[in-house]
Write a structure and sequence with these properties.
Layout: H1 2-79, E1 83-87, H2 97-108, E2 116-121, E3 134-138, H3 141-150, E4 164-167, H4 171-187, E5 191-194, E6 197-200, H5 228-231
Antiparallel strand pairs: 1-3, 1-4, 2-3, 5-6
């Protein structure tokens, strides 16, 4: 009887140990499989999230760059709101550019009690001998308006008849206007190539003369065939 009891206890204990061992093995297997599934799931989710991030970046970055460009353009536009651009104002070594602009306003435009706040001559970066562009800042919008309103009077002033006055422009605005003028000239068959430079054909004299009107300059030879680089504002290349 004692032997049977011992055998029963041994058998019962063996079953318990086997059950525990099987449970441990199953737990390890399940944990291993679960860990692998979690890692795969995490990796799949991460890959999906990263792919979505890249898609969002691809869509948003161009818009952000466009907004930055617009903001920069607006900032530059605000900074030059009182500026005027003066081309072909004779240049002298050691000149006082501000005094020269003030004299242009007084003697050329016949405007009294108006002077510029400051003026700067930009270096001429082209191969031409034309004077550098002058950028002058007026003291108020009213002063600037007077100058631009009277600029057409320069064509009747022998000293300043070749001088052109206009709004200062941002780099983007100058590029747009340059492309437009090239397109218009090409459309009108108004350009011919001479020594790798575009010039207006002789059949359209005096085009693009700004405040100078349609006549040519009998003293300097600026008449029927004018250098396209000057008309496009490229002769001075400021900023």
């Amino acid at each position: 009887m004692a032997l049977n009891e011992r055998f029963d206890k041994f058998e019962s204990g063996l079953e318990t140990r086997i059950s525990n061992k099987v449970a441990q093995i199953l737990d390890k297997r399940i944990n291993s499989v679960t860990d692998k599934m979690e890692k795969k799931l995490t990796m799949a989710v991460d890959n999906k999230v990263n792919a979505m991030k890249e898609e969002i970046k691809a869509e948003i970055i161009p818009e952000i760059e466009e907004l930055k460009s617009f903001a920069s353009s607006q900032s530059q536009r605000n900074n030059i709101a009182l500026n005027i651009c003066i081309r072909d104002l004779p240049e002298n070594e050691g000149e006082n550019t501000k005094s020269k602009v003030d004299k242009l306003i007084k003697d050329g435009l016949k405007i009294k009690n108006v002077t510029c706040l400051n003026a700067e001559r930009k270096p001429n970066r082209s191969n031409s001998n034309k004077p550098g562009v002058v950028i002058a800042t007026m003291r108020s919008q009213d002063d600037k308006k007077q100058v631009l309103t009277n600029k057409s009077d320069l064509k009747d002033n022998r000293q300043y008849e070749d001088v052109f006055i206009g709004h200062d422009q941002t780099a983007v605005e100058r590029k747009i206007n340059e492309n437009f003028r090239i397109f218009r000239a090409l459309k009108n068959n108004d350009i011919q190539i001479q020594s790798t430079r575009g010039v207006h054909n002789g059949s359209h004299p005096g085009k693009g003369g700004g405040n100078r009107g349609s006549r040519g300059d009998h003293r300097t030879g600026h008449g029927p065939s004018r250098d396209l680089g000057h008309d496009l504002g490229g002769a001075s290349g400021w900023r």
